[in-house]
């Protein structure tokens, strides 16, 4: 970790702009469903309060596409933060407008305020320099604690660092240290578990992992493309026809590098993509016409368990099935249990993977739960991370 952190800079009586990741799931009534990301920001916020900083928080929520959307307001986050901190979090009604400027100008040491959703401005995702400059003008120091968006070159994740001394928050630095450790010097056997919908989302990380991992377990819809590459009959199952050649190349490269790739032996199938559809378990390479694979089966789980329990390092990203339906998240939940009960150093990242670990009750058995989804994958594959690159180095 060669980047400066908030502990390397004097924050007393200074206005500190903190880019947090409050992109939390909301229900139809606007209530927060999972406050994991909010709680993950607390160590940085509490440190700044204790050391007399004037704290200005900013974040995005959802995809408002540059337009004001009351359903994606950060007001519920402000209320939850107030409860967690035990003090009022002042809520600005805008990002760089009169409300934000007035509240920040009158902020006292130890006080906390939250700006409205930065993605209500299209300039945020465009990394517009004028917008970044106005956002930076609210503060004297910038702290990036939003690892989940560190792979994005947006105004609030990278642009403001052109105007303010920029350092990492506690969450950001802990993510960098934990993920670097498992990739730089993993204890072996090193087992990677990948799930989710598409190979195309994970081509980069698979290529990197073929140089690092001993075993890669593949579930979710992305496994269907590998099954297609093996000549499987997939019924109505989703897969990427244009990535079959890629799947074959990955399998060939794994064989050359002596990396074991384990794909499903059996799957849970149904005729309808619905929460209460009737199911049956079939051979993964022989899915009947009119049926689609929606979860991994017991033989696959047995094979996965064997590799997981033998591992010394585990990285997991992505669900094993259709996680939004209870009937088809059993495979994901079982994998969560296996990872938690293994003796391996474990890192879990990606929304559904993290949710399954939290829901399983084994979260405290995981060594590191990453707040990033795409950011975690990008970091592990060694891709450019603008939100990290822009931070001051230790020697600066």
Task: Write a concise synopsis of the structure shown.
With 396 residues, the protein is α/β, with parallel strands linked by helices. The protein has 15 helices and 15 strands.
Structure description:
- This protein is of the alpha/beta class and 396 residues long.
- It has two domains: 6-173, Phosphoglycerate kinase, N-terminal domain (Rossmann fold), CATH 3.40.50.1260; 186-380, Phosphoglycerate kinase, N-terminal domain (Rossmann fold, 3-Layer(aba) Sandwich), CATH 3.40.50.
- The protein has helices at residues 36-40, 42-50, 75-85, 98-105, 122-125, 129-136, 170-184, 203-209, 222-229, 244-256, 298-310, 330-341, 351-360, 374-380, 386-389, and strands at 15-19, 54-58, 89-91, 112-114, 141-144, 166-168, 190-194, 215-218, 260-262, 266-270, 279-283, 292-296, 313-317, 345-349, 368-369.
- The strands form three sheets. It has a six-stranded parallel β-sheet.
- The longest helix is centred in the middle third of the chain and has 15 residues, at 170-184.
- The radius of gyration is 22 Å and the shape is elongated.
- It starts with 14 loop residues before the first strand and ends in a 7-residue tail after the last helix.
Shape: elongated
One letter per element, helices H and strands E, the order comes to: EHHEHEHEHHEEHEHEHHEEEEHEHEHEHH
Low-confidence segments, given as residue ranges, are none
Kindly state the mean pLDDT as a whole number? 93
Lateral arrangement of strands in the main beta sheet: 3-4-2-1-5-6
- What share of the residues does DSSP label as strand, in percent? 15-25%
- Distance between the amino and carboxyl termini: 14 Å
Radius of gyration computed on alpha carbons: 22 Å
Summed up, the domain count is 2
Figure out the total of helices. 15
**Fraction in helix:** 25-40%
Q: What name is given to the CATH topology of the largest domain?
A: Rossmann fold
Let me know the number of strands. Answer: 15
**Name of the CATH class of the largest domain:** Alpha Beta
Report the major sheet: 6 strands, parallel
Based on the structure given, which CATH architecture of the largest domain is correct? 3-Layer(aba) Sandwich
CATH superfamily of the largest domain: Phosphoglycerate kinase, N-terminal domain
Helix/strand structural class: alpha/beta
């Amino acid at each position: 970790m060669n980047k400066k952190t908030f502990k390397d800079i004097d924050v007393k009586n200074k206005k500190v702009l903190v880019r947090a990741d409050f992109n939390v799931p909301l229900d139809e009534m606007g209530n927060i469903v999972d406050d994991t990301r909010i709680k993950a920001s607390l160590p940085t916020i509490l440190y700044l309060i204790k050391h007399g900083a004037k704290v200005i928080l900013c974040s995005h929520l959802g995809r408002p596409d540059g337009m004001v959307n009351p359903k994606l307001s950060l007001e519920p986050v402000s209320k939850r933060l107030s409860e967690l901190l035990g003090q009022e979090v002042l809520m600005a009604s805008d990002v760089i407008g009169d409300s934000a400027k007035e509240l920040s100008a009158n902020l006292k040491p130890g006080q906390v305020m939250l700006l409205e959703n930065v993605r209500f401005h299209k300039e945020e995702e465009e990394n517009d320099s004028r917008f970044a400059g106005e956002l930076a003008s609210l503060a004297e120091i910038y702290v990036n604690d939003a690892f989940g968006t560190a792979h994005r070159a947006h105004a609030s994740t990278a642009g403001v660092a052109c105007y303010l001394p920029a350092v990492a928050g506690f969450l950001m630095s802990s993510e960098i240290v934990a993920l670097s450790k498992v990739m730089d010097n993993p204890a072996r056997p090193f087992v990677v578990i990948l799930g989710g919908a598409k190979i195309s989302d994970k081509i980069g990380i698979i290529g990197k992992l073929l140089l690092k991992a001993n075993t890669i377990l593949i579930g979710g819809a992305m496994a269907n493309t590998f099954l297609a590459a093996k000549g499987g009959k997939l019924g109505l199952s989703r897969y990427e026809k244009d990535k079959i050649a890629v799947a074959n190349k990955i399998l060939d490269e794994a064989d050359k590098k002596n990396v074991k790739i384990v794909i499903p032996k059996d799957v849970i199938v149904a005729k309808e993509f619905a929460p209460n559809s009737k199911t049956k378990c079939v051979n993964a390479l022989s899915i009947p016409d009119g049926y689609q694979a929606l979860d991994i089966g017991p033989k696959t789980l047995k094979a996965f368990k064997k590799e997981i329990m033998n591992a010394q390092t585990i990285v997991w990203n992505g669900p094993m099935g259709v996680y939004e339906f209870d009937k088809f998240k059993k495979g994901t939940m079982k994998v969560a249990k296996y990872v938690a009960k293994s003796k391996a150093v474990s890192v879990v990242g990606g929304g559904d993977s993290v949710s399954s670990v939290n829901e399983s009750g084994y979260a405290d058995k995981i060594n590191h739960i990453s707040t990033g989804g795409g950011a975690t994958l990008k970091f592990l594959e060694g891709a450019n991370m603008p939100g990290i690159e822009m931070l001051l180095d230790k020697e600066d």
